[in-house]
Every structure is written in structure tokens, then in C-alpha cells.
Amino acid sequence: MTSVTTKPVASQPATATSPALLDDWFDPIEAGIRERVREFIEEMIREELDGVLARPRYGRRQRGCASDAEAQPVVGHRHGSRERSLTGTFGKTRITVPRARLEQPDGTTTEWRSGTFRAYQRRTLAADALIAGSYLAGTNTRRVRRALGTLFAGSVGKDTVSRVWRKVKSDWDAWNARSLAEEPIVRLILDGTVVRVRLDRKATSMLLLVVMGVRADGQKLLLAVKSMGGESAEAWRTVLDDLIKRGLRRPEFLIVDGAGGLEKAIAAVWDGVPVQRCTVHKHRNLLAHAPERLHDEVTADYNDMIYAATPEEITLRRKAFLRKWRLKHRAVADSLEEAGESLFAFVRLPPSQWKSARTTNAIERLHEEFKRRIKTQTVLPSAETAAMLFWALLASGQISMRKVDGWQTLTSKLIAQPVDLAA
Length: 423
Fold this sequence. Notes:
Blueprint: H1 28-53, E1 76-88, E2 91-103, E3 109-111, H2 125-136, H3 141-147, H4 149-152, H5 158-177, E4 185-199, E5 202-215, E6 220-228, H6 233-245, E7 253-256, H7 260-269, E8 275-277, H8 279-288, H9 295-306, H10 311-328, H11 330-339, H12 354-357, H13 361-373, H14 383-395
Parallel strand pairs: 4-7, 7-8
Antiparallel strand pairs: 1-2, 2-3, 4-5, 5-6
């Protein structure tokens, strides 16, 4: 038999040995700046230690040189230095950090700790902010290394991104515990969104319950994001009780997605507050009750009713809608009647506010941006991470919220229900 052996061709080197695009780009300005940065940081640390010991390196402390006569002199001595690495927006560099022992009043000595270069610090806060910002912008933990490889010379990997992200938790905890007593909230928008998270090593669907507030000046702000197993009355009651405990005032108007559990929770804590059921969610309900060939017709009739210019026109078109669809497809008419007066609570407000008060679109837009952001991660690590990420997109400025339409009339009093529901 003939043995055939395949050998690598020397003229065709392995792809792994070839430099990647941009790897061979060299900038003498960047190289020079990074070297000067190292010298500057070392000089800062040396000056800090000189101030603590009240003498420069190889110098002696002069008697009576202290500016404050009552201050006790700090006695200590240097004992070499150590190398540490630091990654900043200037890249990764090696720093020589001086060491010293300081004598204590009880005769013992302790190691000097620099206030400029903290113990165990590996990155500057600006570098951490850049890494977290890249993650929030939609880059998953594994791709951050490639995205920031030129800047950090490959020193940032997925583990680094995860550690930086965990630092956000202290801000997250403070945000969840902050007082709402001073916030002039006049309106609440409440809705939920489904996310996929890893639970017990399995991908599981969890619900994020989101509460957005509208202040008297019209500015929207996020009040709560809670990870729950569903939209039950108990789940929503937990969210609302926490807001009340933190000082949230009784709102004047509520906009909800129509979930039965939410409506029960609201009735238990804020009975009597006008509730607007999202007209977009109800539109989806109507389409779900009709065959596909009737969707365009249902949509046209529904929009004519919801977007009528006056309460009187809304009343007339609602009656016409019910008469028509009771005969043509009763399930559609029954679905509209099920919503009751909550579908038309927005007409109690001045017309300038109708656009912003009809729907939960303010939260829906956040949901869309959040889902666009997590598209690179099929499953999030945990339920808490999902809630933190939703909050961080707003807190970091990745998403900004404008004032609601018609905010100039938010202080106007609500009028009585002007829509006649008798069909």
C-alpha cells in the first residue's frame, strides 16, 4: 500500500500567525504619551509619600518645620518599591510604587497606603466607566475585548467586564432604597416585559415589572424595576408597597397595560384613582379575537373611535363600533366592552395630554431599546442582572427621556367621565 502524508506548505503559513487588521498600526504620539503618563503617575505617588513623611527621598525631616505646632510629626521610613500594573484610558502601563512603614503612637508600624493609587487597584475609574459603557451600548462581555483591544492591549476580557459590572451594584442598591418623598409625582405608567435569564443553569422566562413616574413639570423618570415570576396581583402589590414605603405620594392618574393582577393591586392601594388602560394593548386584544382577514377593518374602526377629536365623537363612534361588530363578529365587540370606562379615562384630561395619556408607549419604547441592547446576549446571567441593566441604560444616559406631551396642563383638574358607555 502507498502511504499518503499531508504536510503543511511552508509558503502558506497558518492564519493564526498572520497579524490581524489594525494590529500593526503604530502611532509615536500615543506611545510617547503613554510613557509620559507612567512618569507622571509615579511622580504623583512619590510626592504624596514625601508629604506624609515630610521629607523627600534621601532627605531628613527638619525640627520645627511643621506648619501646625500642635500636630505630631509622622515618623516613618521608606523601604523599597514594587511594580504594579494599571489600566486606564491611556492603556495598560507598569507603575513603580514606593513603599514605606509608618510608626504608630503605640510603637507599632504599619504599611503606608497611597490615597492616589488604591490597594489592589488595577484600573482607573475612567477605564471602568468606558468598559461599562461599551457593555451598555450593546457589546456582550466576550466582544468587549475585541472592541477595546487597541486601547487596552488585550488586558480586558469577559471576566474583567463582569467584575466592572458588579461594581454598579452599589449604585443599583442605593437607587432602589432612595426616598421618593420629595418627588412631585402626579402620574404613573406601569407595564411589564419578558426577558430570558439563566436560573438554575436553565434558560427561564422572567418578567420585569416597570414603574415610570411623571413629575408635575412633565419630566418622566424611572421609579422601580423589579424582577418577578409573573404579573400576579401579589407581584404588583410587592412593587407598589415598596414605592409607598419609600414615600411615593398618591398619584392623580395611572396608565396600565390591562393586566388583571395589576388592576387588583391598584384597587387595594389607590382605590378611586383614575386608571387608563393602554389603547395599544386593547387593540392587540381585539385583533386576537378576529380572523386575520378582518384585522384591517377592525383597526380602521378602532382608530376612528380612539383618535376622535372630542369626547362626543368618541361616544358616537364607540356605539357605532359595538353595533357593527356585534353583528359581524361578536367576540370583537365583547372584548371592547370588557375594557369599560378605563379605556376612555384619558378624555378626563385636557386634549393636549391625550397623546401621552392613551398608552404605555413611554415604557414600551424603553422595552424596545432594552431588547435591542440584550440581542447580543440570548440569555442574561440572572434576573437581578436584567433589572440592573434596564436601570443602567437610563442611569448612564444611554437612553434619555423627554417631557410628556401636554406637560404645561398637568396641573389642570380632571373632569367627570364625559364618555357615555350606554350602548
